[in-house]
Specification:
The complex is a heterodimer. Chain A is α/β, with parallel strands linked by helices. Chain A has 19 helices and 24 strands. Chain A has four domains: 173 residues, Rossmann fold (3-Layer(aba) Sandwich); 67 residues, no CATH class; 165 residues, P-loop containing nucleotide triphosphate hydrolases (Rossmann fold), CATH 3.40.50; 71 residues, no CATH class. By secondary structure, chain B is mainly α. The radius of gyration of chain B is 22 Å and the shape is globular. The chains are: A alpha/beta, B mainly alpha.
């Protein structure tokens, strides 16, 4: 049976699928991450898992990789029910996963990383020559231009990604799981990856591929399974239209997801002139923002899009250029000075720099406004006013459950995001910068966040929307700046705002 | 696994019979380990000694605990911001030596003005102790030295200075009024150290809960990046945490000097451990951002209670340090269990 599949390349009707999942359920304390999910994978196909953050994709693949055990359901591998219980077990079946978060030890070399946990030994001692030769052989076979003795710490993100992929190939492979593998790759590296995928596909390996990008789905997908809120929605053919996929993913049609924003561009709020940061992440960026408009800022991870706003807000030292906010030169001012002038920056990672997770909602919401006369008299706090404001904002943003003294850590991701948004409403603000505002939130919260942004804009504030989520940029803005490697590559306006136009500018021009 | 967004299942465990274990668990999650430890200590020592549960002895405990209470409250500020201060013992010693030397010197020059001598001595001692806090604060906030290294280094420096100044011998010659008032005297019907401590507890309670600065200590320890994004001067807040800590430790040092009637370079050696233990037992998080002043006061009282109880039960002093160390570790372990329960009982 195996031989047939291996030689066949591509789906073979009649034979059992390589992998079949039935009724997979996974529960975390207080959370149902997967609810009776179905999935099957044929040999030699690329099966895309599609869904929003929090839909359960990551939980599903970590179960397949043996890192988590399901609480219910059945996993069949080559027609036989198996009880997957460890990463080691998964590996022995030829199932390898490349996660977004790398599992590499930076202090070790590539070859040491490749065989970590599976080192060849002779009489209990490492057989270093054999390991070196095998590492070299794997890298060559995959066409990766890497030296096995390089330290992983000195590699770029893309190169580290290659090492992760190479790791999957160290033993015989039957299923390869790739979690957004192109997120940090350049155009050329992406092409290389696709060629590699085709190569292993032809050898009968089944590939589970997680991506948000339509263009990739068009390029390599055979089938697509859509998950939503931990539930199985549908498995569809790769030719399914984008609108239909979004509908399946979100349970709404695009028009319902994105509100119409009324634009009335007024006076200029922010002018950035030839900005460059001291750390080199941004060089020579100029842009303007006006009241009453939502401006998009697009670009890949590491393009410097977030750093532009952070430099304006005083978080990154400015090396050259000028930032003019509300008519005054504010280059190099501190966050507290920028806040006082009406510039509010909502950071992308709420755990890392957005919220005090172990403190209550009330304290988080009013934190940035404590120096306002509304909340303090001299050095003393007006705790009644504080509680009243927090309660009002929590209600307005529909915080659930509505308990302003509860620790932020005990709320769901979407509700934590609402607390972050509420922070921006405690004081007078003329310019809001949202840096990846919808990462890790459910659809309901996403809609709430979009409506929040719309209301701000229609009330005359200037809004800068920094996002890697293209549909968000496409539907909410009328003017988009695109960045790549620290420089502005385009300003796209009006009718010209579409996926192709923006993506084209996100990538470095290949030397043509 | 960025995808595992918690979703409220809504289905809370059905209204089960609220058993005793449930309430104990809930109390444990809400209040931490301290009330349980206090209860156990009270029962055990009452059984071990007839003299333990008497008004006079308990007042004794309160008076003896005043010094640790002051230091622990200072330590709490360092812990709240996510650091700690290992130099509190040295601050006590330096305060004592500098204060006593200045006081004795002034008194010898002007034997008629004991009050002035006391004032100068107290101010000099507090200034010297607080100076260590200032240096700690500068190192941690401006030069980003880890609180561990900074305060460990300062502990060595301060101790060295205190020994150098005195050659290791006690400093005598302070006016008797100093010891009579601040060491053994009563004011408003309370032992003076207890009164001073009560006043400072009230003042710090107010600072922590009702001022912006108090809130900022929690914010800096809770998430220093978020605090910065919210426009808080994080460096200044960190700096002030160590200054507060130094100030509280030096006030404690002055009171202890009055009690001993001599300036000693060898006091306070157990203070770093005991003050951190008092805070941790009281539920102050070592990661910063969490802790309540009133619990810290109880934590310090608890340690005083245990020491007193062990003295009455005639437990050898060497073994006592074993007990204190064990309690500290027990408290940390209990806190880990608590975190596990929190997930189940989050409402």
């Amino acid at each position: 049976m195996n031989g047939e599949v291996m030689n066949g390349g591509g789906p073979v009707d009649g034979s059992p699928p390589l992998l079949k999942l039935e009724n997979i359920t996974k529960r975390y304390p207080g959370v149902l991450a997967l609810d009776r999910v179905e999935f099957d994978l044929r040999a030699g196909e690329v099966h895309v898992l599609f869904g929003e953050n929090g839909a359960g994709k990551s939980t599903l693949i970590s179960i397949l990789a043996g890192a988590q055990t399901p609480d219910g359901g059945r996993i069949q591998f080559r027609g036989q029910t198996i009880d997957m219980n460890s990463v080691h077990h998964a590996r022995s079946l030829g199932i390898s996963a490349v996660f977004q978060e790398f599992s590499l030890v930076p202090q070790l070399t590539i070859e040491q990383n490749l065989f970590l946990g599976a080192e060849e030994t002779t009489l209990g001692m490492l057989n270093k020559t054999a390991l070196h030769d095998r590492a070299k052989e794997i890298l060559e076979r995959l066409g990766f231009d890497l030296r096995p003795t390089q330290k992983v710490a000195f590699l770029s993100r893309a190169q580290q990604q290659m090492v992760e992929i190479a790791k999957a190939f160290r033993s015989d492979l039957s299923i390869l799981i790739l979690d957004e593998p192109t997120a940090s790759l350049t155009d050329r590296e992406t092409e290389q990856l696709f060629a590699l995928i085709n190569q292993v596909k032809a050898r009968g390996v089944g590939i589970i591929y997680i991506t948000h990008r339509m263009s990739e789905i068009r390029r390599i997908a055979d089938r697509i399974t859509v998950l939503r809120d931990g539930r199985y929605v549908a498995t569809v053919d790769a030719s399914t239209s984008e609108g239909e996929l979004v509908r399946l993913m979100t349970g709404r049609v695009i028009d319902e997801l994105f509100p119409k924003v009324r634009f009335e561009p007024g006076e200029t709020m922010l002018e950035i002139e030839h900005l460059a940061t001291a750390d080199g992440t941004v060089s020579d960026v100029s842009m303007t923002l006006r009241r009453g408009e939502v401006v998009g800022l697009a670009g890949l991870v590491g393009s410097g899009k977030s750093e532009v706003a952070r430099a304006c807000f005083g978080l990154i030292p400015v090396a050259a250029g000028r930032v003019v906010f509300a008519g005054a030169d504010t280059t190099g001012l501190s966050p507290s000075q920028m806040l006082d002038r009406g510039f509010f920056y909502v950071p992308p990672d709420r755990r890392d720099e957005g919220l005090m997770m172990m403190r209550g909602v009330r304290e988080n919401i009013v934190l940035s406004a404590l120096s306002e006369p509304e909340f303090s008299r001299g050095p003393f706090l007006r705790r009644k006013a504080e509680a009243a404001k927090a309660q009002e904002l929590a209600q307005r943003l529909n915080l659930q459950p509505l308990r302003i003294e509860r620790e932020v850590d005990h709320f769901s991701g979407g509700n934590q995001q609402k607390v972050m948004l509420a922070k921006s409403l405690t004081r007078e603000v003329d310019l809001f910068v949202f840096d990846e505002p919808t990462v890790g939130v459910d659809v309901g919260t996403r809609v709430a966040i979009y409506e929040f942004i719309r209301d701000l804009c229609e009330n005359g504030a200037a809004v800068l929307l920094i996002s890697s989520d293209l549909p968000e940029i496409l539907h909410l803005t009328k003017r988009v700046y695109v960045m790549c490697r620290g420089v502005l590559t385009a300003e796209v306006t009006g009718e010209e705002i579409n996926q192709e136009n923006i993506l084209r500018h996100c990538f470095e021009r290949e030397a043509a | 696994m960025a995808d595992q967004e918690p979703k409220e299942t809504g289905a809370q465990p059905p209204a089960r019979t609220r058993s005793l274990t449930y309430w104990v668990q809930l109390g444990f999650v809400r209040l931490g380990v301290l009330p349980f430890l206090l209860l156990i200590a009270l029962v055990v020592f009452t059984l071990l000694s007839d003299h333990f549960l008497t008004g006079r002895n308990l007042m004794n405990v309160v008076r003896q605990s005043a010094y640790l209470t002051l230091v622990s409250m200072g330590q709490m500020f360092a812990l709240l911001t996510g650091g700690f201060d290992l130099s509190v013992g040295t601050i006590l010693a330096l305060t004592s030596v500098v204060g006593a030397t200045a006081m004795a010197g002034t008194y010898a020059a002007m034997p008629d003005s004991a009050g002035l001598a006391i004032l100068i001595g107290v101010l000099a001692g507090i200034a010297a102790g607080t100076a260590i806090g200032v240096v700690n604060g500068v190192g941690v906030s401006i030069f980003n030295v880890s609180p561990f290294m900074m305060s460990l280094g300062m502990a060595s420096i301060g101790f060295g200075i205190a020994l150098y100044m005195t050659g290791g011998t006690p400093v005598y010659g302070m006016p008797v009024e100093f010891g009579d008032t601040f060491g053994f005297g009563n004011t408003l019907g309370l032992p003076t150290p207890v009164l001073v401590t009560l006043v400072l507890i009230a003042a710090l309670f107010f600072v922590v809960n009702w001022t912006r600065l108090g809130r900022y200590f929690y914010a800096v320890g809770g998430n220093i990046k978020a605090a910065r994004l919210s426009g808080i001067n994080t460096k200044l807040t960190l700096f002030l945490a160590y200054v507060f800590c130094g100030l509280m430790a030096s006030i404690s040092g002055i009171l202890l000097t009055a009690r001993l009637d001599t300036g000693e370079a060898n006091i306070g050696a157990t203070m770093p451990l005991e003050s951190i233990a008092a805070c941790v037992i009281a539920g102050v998080s070592l990661r910063g951002g969490v802790g309540r002043l009133e619990n810290v006061v109880l934590g310090a009282l608890f340690i005083g209670l245990v020491q007193n109880g062990m003295n009455l039960a005639r437990i050898e002093s060497y073994l006592q340090t074993v007990v204190i160390g064990s309690l500290l570790i027990l408290a940390v372990v209990a806190d880990q269990f608590r975190l596990r329960y929190v997930a189940n009982l989050q409402d």
